[in-house]
């Protein structure tokens, strides 16, 4: 996807737009409880039979992926995404970082993330510009292309690295009542800037 992607303001439309653009997405409940998304856990419907379904409670799930009711079920299957959001129109939109080849710097000012970022940039220099998303809670996601090395979970108070987990995508609703949105004109752009080398573990160790 080379062209900026306009994001519909409704969650079902936005989820389908992301999937059509090749972004793996999955449903996230407002209370962050898991959905049953994977084949063994997804109940059949009149329009979509599922011979793999095994009836069970989520807490009794025995699928090989321990979070099969979450981001391991993310997909670009537009028809399936439309079915998911037809079932739950108010579901937030989750995107697994690693599966989408993203590494996200999550800045949460409520926990000192802006100060941590300032300290970090004093040490390693100004970070390269990248795709940014404003979170509904006043934070910021800086989205880079993932490196081929393991990354730490945090770089300081309120400054987390999302790589093996997931992030919510616009126009998901934050617990504070605000909505996520992409910076600038609000359109989504596929991240192309690589994760800053200065933030890889060996580079930080060498700098120390």
From TrEMBL:
Occurrences of domain DNA primase/polymerase bifunctional N-terminal (ranges): 15-199
InterPro entries for this protein: DNA_primase/pol_bifunc_N (IPR015330)
UniProt xrefs under Pfam families: Prim-Pol (PF09250)
SMART domains per record: Prim-Pol
UniProt-recorded name of the protein: DNA primase/polymerase bifunctional N-terminal domain-containing protein
Species of the source: Streptomyces tremellae
């Amino acid at each position: 996807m080379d062209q900026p992607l306009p994001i519909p303001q409704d969650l079902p439309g936005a989820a389908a737009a992301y999937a059509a653009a090749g972004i793996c997405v999955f449903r996230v409940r407002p209370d962050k409880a898991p959905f049953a998304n994977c084949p063994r856990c997804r109940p059949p419907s009149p329009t979509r039979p599922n011979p793999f379904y095994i009836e069970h409670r989520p807490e009794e799930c025995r699928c090989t992926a321990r979070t099969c009711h979450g981001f391991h079920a993310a997909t670009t299957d537009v028809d399936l995404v439309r079915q998911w959001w037809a079932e739950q129109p108010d579901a937030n939109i989750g995107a697994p970082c690693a599966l989408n080849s993203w590494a996200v710097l999550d800045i949460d000012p409520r926990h000192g993330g802006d100060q941590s970022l300032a300290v970090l940039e004093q040490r390693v220099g100004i970070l390269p510009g990248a795709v940014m998303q404003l979170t509904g809670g006043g934070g910021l996601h800086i989205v880079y292309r993932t490196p081929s090395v393991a990354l730490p979970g945090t770089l300081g108070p309120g400054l987390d690295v999302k790589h093996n987990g997931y992030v919510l995508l616009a126009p998901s609703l934050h617990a504070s009542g605000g909505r996520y949105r992409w910076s600038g004109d609000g359109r989504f752009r596929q991240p192309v800037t690589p994760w800053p080398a200065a933030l890889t573990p060996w580079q930080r160790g060498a700098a120390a």
